[in-house]
Amino acid sequence: MTFRERYLESLLFGKPDRIPLMPGGPRESTLRAWHQQGLPEDADHYDTMLQTLGLPPSEINIAHPGVNFAMIPTFEEKVLEHINGHYIIQDWMGNITEISDQFDYTYIRSAKDFVTRKWHKFPVETRDDFERMKERYQPDAPERFPENFAERCASIKKNDSLVFMTVTGPFWQLREWCGFEPLCMMFIEEPDFVQEMINFWRDFVLSVMQKMHRHITPDHIIINEDMAYKAHSMISPAMTRKFIIPVYKEWVAELKSAGCQCPCVDSDGYIGELIPIWIEAGMNVCTPIEVAAHNDIVAYREQFRKKMAYTGGIDKRAISKSGKALEDEIARVIPPLLKEGGFIPGCDHGIPSDISWQNYLDYCRLLAHHCGYI
Asked: What's the first-to-final CA gap in the chain, in angstroms?
């Protein structure tokens, strides 16, 4: 099987010859620690892991079409103030945020590491703010698609790559515009305004998807949502059904009509209340299934059977402890899930720096055994 065939068979409850070995990736601080613990400075961690364990070279073949759903143009990134060991920054999304001066605004631009920040102001506080924000989301902006997009898509198809992409979900996007606490208040006090913003985001994403689908369709698209705390969802299931599920249904209908086989939701936190809603909306994969947030992936399999597949699900705390704790965690999760399929095991979030390089190798060795590589 090709990597693409193997990946899709794994998530669609098929019969892959083996399960993709996708343990999860480290953040910057993790890599710094690993370089002090034996990983060569100029080496790729994944390739080095394969070589160290005596496994074949990487088979992973993933292609990103390069479609841009972000605002165009972005806001200017700049430091507004440097005080008491912190930067006050205007980030690319127009937020005024504060971070330690150990870092810079590039740590806000992308999830390079686990960095705590404080928000001071958000770009959308009024309808006038939103009208101005809408100007940055024109579906026909030429920068939304790479140059020679048709040729790029043809090359991806020729190489039989797994076509993978992400898009921001409606809750996440409105939180970026309005801020979490202000948005929660808006759901109660200004529901019509919330609905207006959600409808705009729904239509914008649909328009860009439709343009993309003229040339290529993602095999696996992740809708980034992050709408749950450690023990509950951030908005109620009732509100999710009222405001969010109609968007999911329209997106999934467009994706599936174009041939996308694995529409997926990514949300940290406790997702037990949300999985039934995602299934209702037509999603068939979710990730990363954080164990510390009271998610029991084995119980979810018993409850939802083949209606939902999963990626992730291995407790990062057990990986850090290694030894029997890790062996018990692997035994708890992988055999019951792989019995039916619909599962690609991996760390239940980005790999933190308390997972040593040796512990990472021990963890990958166990994964390789259960996934059919050893």
From this structure: 17
Question: Could you give the C-alpha distances from 360 to 63, 67, 73, 315, 367, in angstroms and in order?
Answer: 26, 33, 40, 13, 10
- The mean of the pLDDT values for the chain is 97
Which residues make Cβ contacts (< 8 Å) with residue 155, sequence separation at least 6?
none
Q: Specify the pTM.
A: 0.96
Question: Tens of pLDDT along 39-94?
Answer: 999 999 999 999 999 999 999 999 999 999 999 999 999 999 999 999 999 999 99
> What is the 3-class SS of the chain, one letter each residue?
CCHHHHHHHHHCCCCCCCCCCCCCCECHHHHHHHHHCCCCCCCCHHHHHHHHHCCCCCCCCEECCCCCCCCCCCCCCEEEEEECCEEEEECCCCCEEEEECCCCCHHHHCCCCCCCEEEEECCCCCHHHHHHHHCCCCCCCHHHCCCCHHHHHHHHHHCCCEEEEEEECHHHHHHHHHCHHHHHHHHHHCHHHHHHHHHHHHHHHHHHHHHHHCCCCCCEEEEECCCECCCCECCCHHHHHHHHHHHHHHHHHHHHHHCCCEEEEECCCCCCCCHHHHHHHCCCEEECCCHHHCCCHHHHHHHHHHHCEEEEEECHHHHHHCHHHHHHHHHHHHHHHHHHCCEEEEECCCECCCCCHHHHHHHHHHHHHHHCCC
Per-residue CA distances from 101 to 28, 54, 111, 117 (Å): 16, 42, 17, 11
353, 30 in Cβ contact below 8 A? yes
What residues are paired with 121 via a beta bridge? 96
pLDDT band for position 114 (cuts 50, 70, 90): confident
Over residues 350-361, the mean pLDDT reads: 97
Which two tokens mark 350?
A: 């980005």
CA-to-CA distance for 6 and 347, rounded, in angstroms? 19
Model pLDDT for residues 250-261, shown as the tens digit of each residue? 999 999 999 999
